[in-house]
Amino acid sequence: MKRVSVRQSPVHGKGVFALCGLRAGERIFEYKGMVTTWREAARWNARRDVSGHTFLFGLSDGRVIDGGRGGNGARWLNHACAANCEAVEDSGRVYIETIREIAAGEELFIDYALEIDQQTDDEAQREYACRCGTPCCRGTMLGAGAVETVVVAA
Ligand SMILES: [Zn+2]
Question: What is the distance in A from the centroid of ligand 1 to the CA of 7?
């Protein structure tokens, strides 16, 4: 049974929405895409107009999953500082799991905690500004340190 769908989001572009109530800790779907290096992905994406939507997902081994190539609906997950889902890395694959109960119709969010290659200058800060609007919003999709994925022992 399909539990989520992709449609226009009031936060930004497209988003992923629950079609039914979800329990905490449910594995929703895999974050699919081409596994590549940051450098290659940055070069490939720079040639296309993908500004504003981030389809790159950092893996713990330093590579990325590029959801823009061979990706699925998971690439439309928007960022929120108070996310209701998290990305769980399991044997080199990434799954999106709920971290609390989600009602039917609610949008699903993950905290990107992005790590970008360049200096975090003003331009980058603007490009990755957060619009989640929650009280704990830190105003940016950038993380303090490394990309935060939870590594599950195989
Ligand atoms: Zn925010």
Answer: 20
